[in-house]
Specification:
Oligomer: single chain
Structural class: alpha/beta
Number of strands: 26
Helix content: 40-55%
Amino acid sequence: MPLLEPKPQALRPGRKRGPAPDRVPDLQARGTPRGLREELSALIGPEKVLSTISDLVRYASDASPYRFVPQVVLVPETVDDISAILSYAHGKGREVVFRAAGTSLNGQAQGEDILVDVRRHWAGVEVLDDGARARIRPGTTVLRANAALARYGRVLGPDPASAVACTIGGVVANNASGMTAGTTRNSYRTVSSLTVVLPSGTVVDTADPAADEELARAEPRLCAGLLALKAEIEADAELTARIRAKYALKNTHGYRLDAFLDGSTPVRILRGLMVGSQGTLGFLSEVVFDTVPLDRAVSTGLLFFPSLPAAAAAVPRFGEAGAVAVELMDGNTLRASVSVAGVPADWAELPPETAALLVEFRAPDPAALDGHEAEAARLVADLDLVAPVASVAATGNAFTRDPKTIAGYWKARKAFVTAVGGSRPSGTTLITEDFAVPPARLAEACAELLDLQARHGFDAAVAGHALHGNLHFLLAFDAADPTDIERYATFMDAFCKLTVERFDGSLKAEHATGRNLAPFLELEWGPKATELMWRIKELVDPDGLLAPRVILDRDPQAHLRNLKTIPKVEAVVDPCIECGFCEPTCPSADLTTTPRQRIVLRREMMRQADGSPVEAGLLATYGYDAVDTCAGDSTCGLACPVGIDTGALMREFRHVRHSPREERIAALAARGFGAVEASARLALAAAERLDDRLLGSVTGLVRKAVRPDLVPEWLPGIPGAAARRLPRTDRPSAVAVYYPACVNRIFGGPEGTARGGPSLPEAMVALSARAGMPVWIPDDVAGTCCATIWHSKGYARGNAVMADRIVEAAWGWTAGGRLPLIVDASSCTLGLARDVVPHLTARNRELHAELTVLDSLEWAADELLPRLEVRRRVGSAVVHPTCSMGHLGHEGLLTTVARACADEVVVPDDAGCCAFAGDRGMLHPELTAAATAREAAEVTARAFDAHLSANRMCEIGMERSTGRAYESAVLALERATRP
């Protein structure tokens, strides 16, 4: 063990704990049984088998209220892997569940035996027919697919609120729809073809003209059975009519029986059945969608009503006027939304009975939108709207075309589950229900639902796709309390009977049956249709191999089994409902753990008794899997609708693991940073004369002896040292203070782009002077830093030392804040502008409030570019927006500067945090490799004339990943405007 390796016990939860009833038992502490692990490793490769107790626990939870601990988690890469897994399961009598994003709300992506991750290696989009169609792999998020289609003016029909995280496999498997899809643009209606691996291992491409012939040869029993069921259904006029009536509403409860009415051949029937089959009939390896037009002219209004029934009553009128979306939000939802960034704080004061409609019209062009807006204005004038708080009065219950305002409205609406869930009482479990009634009866259904909730002691939040009669509501209860579980069970019985018997509605409109509505399938469909569904399952999956007890379960109490308790954990992450919205943005998602999984593991520790074998197993791996390989960039906080920052918790855990001696050394380094800076520059200069292999060997040995998380690994191609002296500048004429970040005072520029040109500080000074906006570099910047080095590593004392020092210095340099301070690295801008504040003394917080900190991109785009003449451009540039730009809202500024320098500017669809994170990419190179793999594949797929960013360490990280030389966009702008 390395000399300074921290003890795992340092991360043990502090308070005394007894064992929770639903804890993982001690018998599972060693993870996957040895025989199972070895057999599967031999079958598909050990690197595709996840078997530690940490692996099993982190995959046991998803966005649903259930928790099932698998025996093993597999991460296949190919269809051959999938076929091998299914063959193995057949031979051994085992069960298989497929899981992609884990955003399903009803437990359909959870299993107790073999769980198969089909997200990690299953992403990809191929745009076909100029955007009219798209071939998409199941691990691709809806957001990523739509990004590829947007440049063609197209989009997918399904538009679930979880589009940022949910993947195509789950969308099709659940027949998810969303805000505008209704019954005409959902997966069932827009899937052109799909490729499925059946439980037998047979692969069927439904687009293949010979597919029926091949299926008949491979699966004669299946083909005959599908045609027999078709004939039986069509011969029953009453059943046929019932099926058609059921799908006039949004309905994802059970198997898609109209596939037998719509499909003329076994393969066509199979194509329809697979949509909404929730992983119980096969694995979807790819899907071809027919896309729909992306209407770019949009007008949206957020209209407030005195009550939920009043809002519901207005819905049909907007539908008749041509609205594409009418979203309903009740008072609980609106008040909970104040936790979402940008939502007015006074929404918290809205009366409980208030409700709102988010109404949107879309058109291909502004002229066509005019008519919709005129009709909307007429409707609004005729409605009894209210303005209970000042922010509502200010907007006037009016429609707007402003993209920023519209985005804010939708952000609040899409945060429904997370915002309400985040505001639930600590320790309670969240249930998300989803049903549909005839749209004309929506107001009546709302009134009945409110009465039912009150009678059972629930104060649920209600929202939904009102245009289609589809409502969602959220309930919170204590899954550790049998009395509360009984209350929930009684409510569910009453709710399901109300929906079916009073409204003839759908018990699952778009979230699919899963586990929690399986016991109520026959209540909605009746015995004849339900028995047909059992026969479908037996026909396609005769051995019950795939996702048993999902959709079909004869146990009337199945929905109460394995309900997930939510132990209280650290306050910063305790509101988490485990929705998974954070996962696509996480740099370590394909390497170790995600933010959600870090929280899930922490909660399991809280379920365990002090010192249990399971707790010990989790702690043994948590240091590397959760803490060390967290980039600490807090992009999870940006992705989370309620801003949960798991990165902040990991930085705190780094602090907890530090010894007092380490904290003292870090504080000394902060006080003597001038010497540290000079030494680092000298080391880089010396390294230029040494062999990379020698340096790599030396640092490797030291890392093993000391600790990998303390000693950076020498990486071939690391830039040389920056010039010791900064450019000379004149203070009296300066209109701004320029602060070259320490990374730009230590590291030189990329060799491939330097071309004998200026350094970044030289370029910034020259460019500013050229624009008539001269800057001044203080003489005493050496030895100062934005404090991000200490902040990201959790060194509290060093962080405080440097934070106070830099703010005091900046206040003096800027003449008490009269001049702006320009910073030339985006992470350092973020550090100086925001991150230092909590660590300052009270006096220095006052000084900081007087500072204006600007990033070099802000300076270049807003102040310099309008005053400069662009004299030359390169043909193409690809940009890397850093995570700090995301926090600062500066991604658009990077493209603005890049467009001044290049005729074509490309932002990779898979652009994300590079995870170099200061020196973390040198401490854990595997983290940056995993984080940048998809972006690097896009970048290297073609040639670019320039590769631009605005943070030296991120540029180094991208150079490592792509083999292409990245540089600051400021350098490119200097060349483009040079006389």
